[in-house]
Amino acid sequence: MSEPGGRANRRCGARLAVAGLVVVAVVAAGCVSADESVTQGSTTPASSASSGTSITEPVPGPTTGGQASPAALRWEPCDGGFECATLAVPVDHERPDGPTLDLGVVRQPAGDADRRIGSLLMNPGGPGGSAVEFVEGVAPGLPAPLRDRFDIVGFDPRGVGRSDALDCHARVRAMYVADPTIEDPADRAALLRTSTAFVRDCERRYRDLLPHLGTRDVARDMDLLRQALGEEKLTYVGLSYGTSIGQVYADLFPTRVRAMVLDGVVDLATPGVAGAEVQATGFERALDNFAADCRRRSSCPIAADPEGAVERVMAAAERSPIPARHAGEPAGPGLVTLALVQAMYSESLWAPLAEGVAAALDGDASVLVRLADSYLGVASFEIYFAVSCLDSAWPEPDALLAAAEAAARSAPHFGEAIVTDYVRCSLWPTRPQPLRPPEAQGSPAILVVSTTGDPATPYESGVAVAKQLPRGVLLTNEGEGHTVVVEGKACIDDAVVPYLVDLEVPEPNTRC
């Protein structure tokens, strides 16, 4: 299960994460949908790119340090009170005078212009989450000191949303309906057949662009945006996969960081299959917490044996898809697994999950299919895999499926399915460009927020990254769910806001 989306999905849609990158979907009130209001310039398609991604021929200009100097942003009113612009960045940062891509950017100007500090960039995760939609959804409700003192800025990473979103997802549903646990040759054949069709479609449409979609490219884009915004240094909040972008930025440009918050942290020291296995243990922990909560509540319809009920539904789906009278199709093992993973991202989904499991035991999996459909509703799988398959090295399909089977021993409900998801990376056509843990020598203190019950990026990952950074400061959130910053938890915001505004670093190992 990949999780293209990040926290934008929790507020604006749905999705689930796997390689420890993202957040899932909960349809949330107050999410603003971004209309397409950025005017694109005339473009010339690359030789092998589809018409879905526009690549602009270069305009000669000055360079600084090997990078093209970005042009000043031209802001225009958009989306009911925001301002939008586009930033041209090189497709290949090693060829700064080569073809460019246009990135969509949005901002909410600082409320107190006389006391403005600068720009606060935010990214909700993914890979595949739209920072434009995220900022438009959360900026009006941020704590007043942030709204008053900063322009709140988001940019859609290359290949996402308003930044020439990739579009090769026609086969995604079939790919996830396929059984992610391999019991026989037919399961294996269906998994590889649907995965290969998806990968070939993306390769056919975006062959020339695929090598230039990794996190290093996004971090370099973010530095060009910093310059275009006129900021000497970067102030940044990254959530989920956004923490990968932040770590890579701090590694590449440590002295250009003013302040950085990383929440729901991906540990770049455990890449690829190892990272997927770590994440699977996080989902197992979340399922244990769900079961314990269910047993405590007399209203929970499966309180007598939550784990057993979940396992009976999974076994029933393996035998034969469970009918779903009020949904589009019956629930086989793929859709049941998606429903379970999705519900682990937020306590708000635990009650619907329990009701869905109880109903499925009575022969109606409609609730579970709807949970799975919310996962499938955000079309960002292509960029999720385009980034994930570049950022880590992956084994050949047979070796990966063997690792997935082994993962089930330590994570019996999620291990095989989560590792199996990355068979798409075993088939991916682009040579990996593996990331490394950040060294970030010369950076200021970086605030690392980690939640004890986080299913997607387990607590231990945040602890590890805080130690890897030369000046990492750990802030522990005791609770459930994936990411917590600017969600209204007072003791978290009481630490994060003074850090961002006044550079007041909380005491190391503070717990909320």
What does this structure look like?
The chain is an alpha/beta fold and 512 residues long. Helices cover 40% and strands 13% of the residues. It is built from 18 helices and twelve strands. The strands form two sheets. The chain has a ten-stranded mixed beta sheet with strand order 3-4-5-7-6-8-9-10-11-12, with helices on both faces. A two-stranded antiparallel ribbon has the order 1-2. The radius of gyration is 22 Å and the shape is globular. It starts with 6 loop residues before the first helix and ends with a strand. About 11% of the residues have low confidence.
Tell me the β content: 5-15%
Main sheet attributes: strand count, strand direction, barrel closure: 10 strands, mixed
What are the segments in which pLDDT stays under 50 over at least 5 consecutive residues? 8-52, 58-66
Please tell me the overall pLDDT. Answer: 88
Can you say what the CATH homologous superfamily of the domain at 7-165 and 210-270 and 436-511 is? Alpha/Beta hydrolase fold, catalytic domain
Q: Given this structure, which CATH class of the domain at 7-165 and 210-270 and 436-511 is correct? A: Alpha Beta
CATH topology of the domain at 7-165 and 210-270 and 436-511: Rossmann fold
Amino-to-carboxy terminus distance: 30 Å
**SS elements, strand count:** 12
CATH architecture of the domain at 7-165 and 210-270 and 436-511: 3-Layer(aba) Sandwich
User: Considering DSSP H and I runs of 4 or more, what fraction of the residues is helical?
Assistant: 40-55%
Q: What's the SSE pattern? A: HEEEEEEHHEHHHEHEHHHHHHHHHEHEHE
What Rg, in angstroms, do the CA atoms define? 22 Å
- The 3D shape can be described as globular
Count of DSSP helices? 18
User: Spatial order of the strands in the main sheet?
Assistant: 3-4-5-7-6-8-9-10-11-12
Structural class assignment:
alpha/beta
